Amino acid sequence: KSSRGDFVFSADRLIRLVVEEGLNQLPYTECTVTTPTGHKYEGVRFEKGNCGVSIMRSGEAMEQGLRDCCRSIRIGKILIQSDEETQRAKVYYAKFPPDIYRRKVLLMYPILSTGNTVIEAVKVLVEHGVQPSVIILLSLFSTPHGAKSIIQEFPDITILTTEVHPVAPTHFGQKYFGTD
């Protein structure tokens, strides 16, 4: 029942938190940074070879949160829609960086309900040479059933979510983009 403005603000905060935790899971190397005052600081730098993939359309809500943290990260897209009667997911579009098979993938999909859409997305990534062990699913809300379905199909995938609850707010995309 919140206003769209409050909804988007809160969603963006959750997105940022889950994106930052996903980035914490990526490999990095130590480096020395010289600050503007000339002091040396021992910091870290992400290793090359990371990318995001958003499952359209609701996954696109997470892209800005990722770009806010990693300005030049490459982002692929995949469009999957589920048949409302059978709940079978079908891939309609997929566009990834050409060398995605060499990259760690942050798969963005905010609402994980049955898990069918994510399973299809991972299958497409695997067809493009991506190993499930380098895929980190970034989700805001997940049902226990959805998470279990994905782990049963792809036990090596990492799932990060802010909440696991039997009821998922499936209206997320409509509310976020103002099409409800």
From TrEMBL:
Alphabetical list of InterPro entries matching this protein: PRTase-like, PRTase_dom
Ranges of residues in domain Phosphoribosyltransferase: 3-165
Keywords recorded for this protein, A-Z: Cytoplasm, Glycosyltransferase, GTP-binding, Nucleotide-binding, Nucleus, Transferase
GO CC entries: cytoplasm; nucleus
GO molecular function: glycosyltransferase activity; GTP binding
Cited CDD domains: PRTases_typeI (cd06223)
UniProt key word Glycosyltransferase: yes
Name of the featured protein: Uracil phosphoribosyltransferase homolog
